[in-house]
Amino acid sequence: EPEEGEVLCGEEGRGRLASLEHILAEAELLLRRARDLAGRRVLVTAGPTREWLDAVRFLSNASSGRMGYALAEAARDRGAAVVLVSGPTSLPLPEGVECVRVETAAEMLQAVLARFPEVEVVIKAAAVADYRPATPAGGKMKKGAEPLELKLEPTPDILRTLGERKSGQILVGFSAEVGDPVPEAWRKLKAKGLDLVVANDISRPGIGFEAEENAVTILGADGTREEVPPAPKRVVADRILNHVVRLLNR
Ligand code: C5P
Q1: For burial by CB atoms within 10 Å, which of 75, 107, 114, 213 has the most?
Q2: Which residue among 85, 103, 113, 124 has the greatest number of ligand 1 atoms within 8 angstroms of its CB, and so is best to mutate?
Q3: SS3 for 88?
Q4: Quick check: helix, strand or coil at residue 170?
């Protein structure tokens, strides 16, 4: 990035060519970046899902997709072949990653199952809707004076399905809770057959849903536990991938 200081015509501002020392340091960082996922195939899911009520309305949630996109980019930079299965987000699709766009939990399940046999790692950062309208209306529902009751049915639990079918893949789930997320995260790890679970407290201000930063606890089926203090999602992504690499190299 350009640096601040005296620029041409004696003016002050941001626009100087970065110092050679700075450029050299950045280049060295890039060259030394770990390629510890080279040759590995990693599937990441990201973003919310949409569960349609009728032709124009849906149930969804506030997931921005940033955590999953950061994971996909971090895995790519560490040498992995990455498939990103993404619900609707406003983020630009990452370069150098195979992107599959989906809307509903059912579509996400299909896309993930189709690629599951070919991958070694699945990271489920998507905020999949837990319920969907039992009988979506065709066309647009009309407004009436009476209260409207919606009947919802559970969506397929993608991660649990993968846990039942896994043949050596490493499964990473997320567990977003209000308050201490750790007890519930342990329960999910066991119930869904996960190798790692990333727990975060969404009631803490400035982190998690829609935020640039996240603070998480990473729990492993082997009993490991790491606290990651508030940090940009890309930094959190690399900390999660460190655990994935450790498990792959077991
Ligand atoms: O049970 P809960 O929805 O809190 O679990 C969260 C984890 O399970 C996340 O990793 C999420 O991507 C995954 N999940 C899923 N399919 C669902 C619901 C959640 O894969 N239907």
Answers
A1: 75
A2: 124
A3: coil
A4: strand
